[in-house]
Protein: ABC-type branched-chain amino acid transport system, permease protein II
Amino acid sequence: MNDETSEPTTEDGPSLIESDVASTLDRFGSSERSIVGLTVLAVAVFPWLFVRAPVISGLFRGYQSLASLILIWGIFALGFNLLLGYTGLLSFGHAAFWGGAAYAAGIFSASVSGSPVLMVLFGTLFAVLLAWILGFVSLRRGGIYFSILTLAFGQMAYYLALSPLQGLTNGENGFTDVDVGNLFGFLDAFSAFESIPLGTPVPLLGDWLYVFVGAITVLCVAAVVRILHSPYGLVFKAIRENEQRASFVGLNVWRYKLMAFILSGAFAGVAGSLFVVHGSYVPVESLYWTTSGEIVVMTVLGGVGSMVGPMLGAGLYLYVENVVSGDPAIQPYWHLILGLIFVAVIALFPEGIWGIVGRVRETFSAPSTDAEQGGEN
Structure:
């Protein structure tokens, strides 16, 4: 009798503990503060692991400038995912916001002020206004017609910069008069020779440009998390799941889709402005359709509908483009390698790279779930 009663206790004990740990991790992982806190930690450690850590950095072969660039494209992917992953709208014209903000920030730096903060603010404001106009027209149609309209607007922006507005944009040579000034008016943060001394409390970060980009990355993640946990985020997901049903319950679907489009354009504007601060140059290709295609690939590769996935996709894409392609034997084939990675990930794991992590996690948590169900039966 004692054996019969004590045996289930022995089996359920660890299962219950595992279940409690899993539920605690779930609550921790979905908390706004914990997501922002983990983002701060990841942003702080990333350049050290990527560039300076013993052994690991040697395997990665990363460099400081690429670490900043990954965060910048990560912001772009994060905002694009807000539209594609959470609202279900596929845009092929986001290069207009990325490149438009880049040109706006670059021209602003040459004509008004080179303050990086003001450049980002002005570029983002330009992208928001542009997204409002293009979204107002494009969202009159849905599905493939919406996607084609955004692609058409993006290409129109490219050809405007290439020829009719070349007096302002410098045409096919790109805008080269970018003049990035001191951060906050006194810190020569973006000089090639400025780096954070190892004696400071933040030597892991590498240089002040990364600190600037990393701080804005954390703010963007916090903003996206707040949006997704707000009623707006819930409505975005409802529209993605069933637009007609959302309309039937009285929601103004078009207005919410327009808001998602503008918010997504705003994040693209932040990233495009940072891209100019990072490179002090605006290539006309930043408005070309391939830029829109790249952000689609990055987002899908990482995993749409997740916070982390698109940023991972951006990191992997840039890593292959900038590090793997540096090998003379691989350089002619890096596009092919990237294509094979994309096909393999999407064919085997449609949820993207982050979906692989999710499946591994489900594999480890499955025994405890089965044990709980067995106990209930």
